[in-house]
Design a protein that fits this description.
about 120 residues, five-stranded antiparallel sheet, 12 strands, about 0% helix
Length: about 120
């Protein structure tokens, strides 16, 4: 999918959590906000010490811990209107994508883009 950025997005997480399949995490709070970004859990891991938002769909949850089911990175792209993105995966109100020019990978809220083509 090709998407056009229609609204600026700036990441507030300079050190995003990066996880590999099989990693163990502590499950924290569930995201609650007006945006409708359901199914995001704030997770923490101890080695290396990182925390951040992880989609519930990639966690096998048991009590307050979880096993990561696939590789994951919480990197968010900083984008400006007019930039083009290649959408790779849509999940919980966000798009995992590649910036068409810089080739950087990251998440962008769906509300900040218009889909141009599938």
């Amino acid at each position: 999918m090709i998407a056009l950025v229609v609204k600026t997005h700036v990441s507030h997480y300079p050190d995003p959590i990066t996880l590999s399949k099989g990693d163990l995490v502590q499950i924290g709070r569930r995201y609650e906000g007006p945006e409708g970004w359901d199914n995001w859990l704030y997770c923490k891991r101890s080695s290396p010490d990182q925390e951040g938002w992880v989609p519930e769909q990639i966690i096998q949850i048991k009590d307050e811990t979880g096993i990561i089911l696939e590789d994951y990175c919480a990197n968010e792209l900083n984008v400006e209107p007019g930039e083009r993105l290649i959408g790779l995966r849509e999940l919980n109100g966000w798009l995992w994508c590649q910036h068409e020019t810089t080739e950087e990978l990251g998440w962008v809220p769906l509300a900040n883009i218009d889909k141009i083509s599938e």
